[in-house]
Amino acid sequence: MMHQDRSRPARTGRIRASLLPLAAAFATLLTTANLAVAEVAGGTVKIGVINDQAGPLSDLAGPGSVAAARLAIEDFQKLSPSVKVELVTADHQNKPDIGAQIVRRWYDAEAVDAVFDVGNSAVALAVQSIAKERGKLVVYSAVGTVDITGKQCSPTGLAWLHDNYNLVSGPIRKLKSQGLDPWFFIAADYAFGRNMVQESQAMLASAGGRTAGSVFHPLGNADYGSFLLQAQASGAKVVAFANAGEQLVSAMKQWNEFGMGAAGQTPVALLMFLTDVHSMGLQIAQGLTTMTAWYWDLNDDTRAFAKRFFGMRGTMPTAPQAAVYSAILHYLKAVAATGSDDTATVLAKMRATPVDDFYAPGATLRADNKLVHDFYLVQAKKPAELDRPWAYYKVVETVKPADAYRPLSESECPLVVARPK
Amino acid sequence: MFEILGVPAQALFGQLLLGLINGSFYAILSLGLAVIFGLLNIINFSHGAQYMMGAFVAWMCLNYLGINYWAALLLAPLVVGATGIAIERLLLKRIAHFDHLYGLLLTFGLALIIQGVFRNQYGSSGLPYQIPPELRGGQNLGFMFLPYYRGWVVVASLAVCLATWFLIEKTKLGAYLRAATENPTLTQAFGINVPLLVTLTYGFGVALAGFAGVLAAPIYSVNPNMGADLIIVVFAVVVIGGMGSILGAIITGFSLGLIEGLTKVFYPEASATVIFIIMVLVLLVRPAGLFGRAA
């Protein structure tokens, strides 16, 4: 079995060869989409969605990403009813070893063509090398580390949502330009928080800004009173949180409790999802600024998707979940168009075709495999401004890629460096 | 104004006060654990989950029944305590005569189940809960801004801790409890319903966790995992204070809150570790804990 799996292209070739006379005989009856069935290994495109299904990240991605994947497949089948698509899902429990083991099995033994979401930087880095070795496709949604399309970039690893650079770029440019400076950082003491603060400070310094101080708190910290008092005493105009989920929720609850907003400081969440705002309530979250790749209440198309999603999950979709939909649909369209599930063929088609959906209309992949799309600088509304359930954000500014992405000229990705300009 | 190790004294007073407030949570939670261990010999690993239940019951009271914070403060401990009584009657009772380890495993398993059920039902990112309107705002003390709610937390937890101590150490009911712990057979021979005492004690300890959960709901994230991180720290507090020592749990809870608060000023990265370092040191010098009696 192992041998067969390793020599997949050869096997595919044999199947194709055996199907060829058959296909030729019925050629007049077949549409292009039907032809695609004959070209896809096993006649079925198999995609896997892996993420944290029950842990701290399960609301922002989790089962919601699986629902988004089902919607993408449903929409794709309307376009190409004859291409069979099979979806498998798994829980990596935020453990790189478990994630790596499942993805390895998917690629090697279960003929999975492409993996989506992943949604945890540590797991993503483990999956990246497995996909690269096997020449298989993986498309990341909520993966923050800049390394995934930087130092550790891979020809088969695509980033569909954001990285830490995107996330910090908007708030820093905007607030600095409004004269809000210096900044104080309250960050979680692990790779994510450290990396976020490092990216922020570099960007702040290049914009002529100043860091008034920073504290790194242990993961899972529940009380932020002490750090908030330190932030207050620092004289910073902006207090930026580089922690996520429940930590951000607790920190903001206490921000309100300590009357920080009234004291004239502006809170910024460097990483926040719609579900976090829902958890805080607008009473607590109001005024909080963050950067997001997508928001459900942008236009009629996004609202239409959100409505369908809400019907399945009872919550509005987060940006990572919408990204999973978009990535899967774009991938499947490329499979149908090329009539193949061969990674290089499909990838070439994905690159050549701009994304055509509500998530990132017209977006394209650049040389380091990051999808280039607009970002939105958003602010949590005041409770009185909330006119519909879940419409928590007001869009302050649409941030164009030129301002939200690290220029390719500064990229550390070997794919970019190797390519002549 | 003078400074201590580069930190202005005023800021330091503020931080000490904050530490005392956090210590309140440690004190109530470790008190519940100490009561349960002291009288039942059960290492109650589901204490964190029961603390979480307290916060969730407060949320449910508000959102399903329109019951406000103050009523929830009474009602949630009763509800959570009642589930504790059911657990004791249905499960813990059956393994009472086995080794401690069985109780530990059972309650740990229960904690995982309870957290799983809540996560399945309410998701992982948590639910909103506001500070009651009466306690919004705060007072500028000169050296820090003290939110009224924090002040209330200290007062409420101190009162509950002292009342519990008084109940167990100074009343007739407490005397029965202590007697039942020392020698259940003899106590029962005097006509005291020992199984009932044991059940009620577990229910009371669990209700304390529920009470702490309601206190925490307005200021911490109300989510299914909120007790999981805290419970480890609280166990360290109980071990430092001496397993089963009521006064030890209270005093250690407050003082470790202070120490943790200071660590957050001087070296925040270590604030989660400092309690465990102290635990190691205490265990080296006094294996039974600061206030514990050697077995």
Mind explaining what this structure looks like?
The complex is a heterodimer of chains A (about 425) and B (about 300). Chain A is of the alpha/beta class and about 425 residues long. Chain A contains 17 helices and 14 strands. In chain A, strand 3, helix 6 (about 120-135) and strand 4 (about 135-140) form a beta-alpha-beta unit. Mean pLDDT of chain A is about 90; it is low at about 1-15 and about 20-40. Chain B is mostly helical and about 300 residues long. Chain B has a single domain, classed as ABC transporter involved in vitamin B12 uptake, BtuC (Orthogonal Bundle). In chain B, a hairpin with a 4-residue loop joins strand 3 (about 140) and strand 4 (about 145). In chain B, helix 1 runs parallel beside helix 5, helix 2 (about 45-65) packs across helix 8 (about 195-215) and helix 3 runs antiparallel to helix 8 (about 195-215). The longest helix of chain B has about 30 residues, at about 10-40. Chain B is globular, with a radius of gyration of 19 Å. The mean pLDDT of chain B is about 90. The chains are: A alpha/beta (about 425), B mainly alpha (about 300). Chains A and B meet through strand 7, helix 9, helix 10 and helix 11 of A and helix 1, helix 4, helix 9 and helix 10 of B.
Quickly name the level 1 CATH class of chain B.
Answer: Mainly Alpha
Write down how many β-strands of chain A occur, each being a DSSP E stretch of 2 or more residues. Answer: 14
Main sheet: strand order of chain A? 2-1-3-4-5
Low-confidence parts of chain B: none
Largest sheet of chain A: 5 strands, parallel
Low-confidence regions of chain A: 1-13, 20-38
The SS-based structural class of chain B is mainly alpha
Largest interface: A-B, 46 and 42 residues
Number of domains of chain B: 1
Q: How many whole angstroms does the radius of gyration of chain B measure?
A: 19 Å
Task: Give the mean pLDDT of chain B.
Answer: 89
Strand order of the largest sheet of chain B: 1-2
Oligomeric state of shown chains: heterodimer
Number of strands of chain B: 4
Give the termini separation of chain B.
50 Å
Average pLDDT figure of chain A? 88
- Could you give the order of the helices and strands of chain B? EEHHHHEEHHHHHHH
CATH topology of chain B: ABC transporter involved in vitamin B12 uptake, BtuC
